[in-house]
Amino acid sequence: MQADDDAIPGAVPGPGARAGEERRGGSPQSVTRVIRVLEALCASNEPVSLADLSRRLATPKSSLAALLRGLADEDLVTATEGAWRLGPGAFGLGSALTEARRRLQSSDLVREGMRRLSERSGETVLLAVGDPDGDMVTYVDLVESRNVVRYSVSVGDRRPFYATAGGRALLSTCSPSAVDAYLKRVGVERLAPTTETDRAALSAIVESARERGFAQTVDQAAEGVTGTAAVIRDASARVVGALVIAAPTARARDRLDELARLVLAEAAAISRSLGFR
């Protein structure tokens, strides 16, 4: 038995703070909690008790109870034998969102994210997809950097998986056996003086990208070019492509960690906009 269901580790608000929280129904924190409540109920096959919601969301029961009452007033949730489930209003809202999602093409959402990433990084941003034969990536969209000195590529250009950040990020979503089969099949060539051509080393690089969630190349597909990439997924968890920051190595070499954080954050934001959870 829990000693204090309202006690959240690391959070010790005073009585006035909690009362103020209840009054601020429209605060950003309350909006976030509403979204998290609906997500938790969407993910559950059974009604969820208030205590269970409190544990899952690390939120005091008193705060959740107030939110649930408001959601129930709009038929977004409903109480069932002391637990909560989605109400009819949620399904109507879901249908409306699905229709809006149909009108707003996925490509528009990806493109919007690419623009954000280009502005934040100051570099060219690419979208790379794998060819059907699995040996090459194709750049299908780009947002060019505003810098005079920038990486330039044309839509439709193709590069081998093993030598590009986008290709390695896409390979990292495949099984180790599929990666080994690819490396045995493909003709590994040196595209720049420092291109990695050792198949065992390439396998280890792909495994590292799988663990870290992103891939990064320095002077691999071309001398003087650094790439940083993470994959984008849609609502069905299908890989849409790889989001790539492409930058001159001279400008990127001191920003590798920053570029990795930026591409990871934006790939996650785009994936979430496409319905991936």
Features:
277 residues, alpha+beta, 2 domains, Arc Repressor Mutant, subunit A, single chain, six-stranded antiparallel sheet
Structural write-up:
With 277 residues, the protein is an alpha+beta fold. It folds into 2 domains: 15-100, Winged helix-like DNA-binding domain superfamily/Winged helix DNA-binding domain (Arc Repressor Mutant, subunit A); 104-273, GAF domain (Beta-Lactamase, 2-Layer Sandwich). It is built from 11 helices and 9 strands. The strands form 2 sheets. Strands 6-5-4-9-8-7 form a 6-stranded antiparallel β-sheet, sandwiched between helices. Strands 1-3-2 form a 3-stranded antiparallel β-sheet. A hairpin with a 5-residue loop joins strand 8 and strand 9. Helix 2 packs across helix 4 (61-73) and helix 8 (176-185) runs antiparallel to helix 9. The radius of gyration is 23 Å and the shape is elongated. Residues 1-26 have low confidence and may be disordered. InterPro entries: GAF-like_dom_sf, HTH_MetabolicPath_Reg, Tscrpt_reg_IclR_C, Tscrpt_reg_IclR_N, WH-like_DNA-bd_sf, WH_DNA-bd_sf. Keywords: DNA-binding, Transcription, Transcription regulation. Residues 1-30 are annotated as: Disordered. Residues 8-18 have a biased composition (Low complexity).
What topology does this entry show?
Elements: H1 15-23, H2 28-43, E1 48-49, H3 50-57, H4 61-73, E2 77-80, E3 83-86, H5 88-103, H6 106-121, E4 124-130, E5 136-143, E6 158-160, H7 165-171, H8 176-185, H9 199-212, E7 215-218, E8 225-233, E9 239-248, H10 249-252, H11 256-273
Antiparallel strand pairs: 1-3, 2-3, 4-5, 4-9, 5-6, 7-8, 8-9
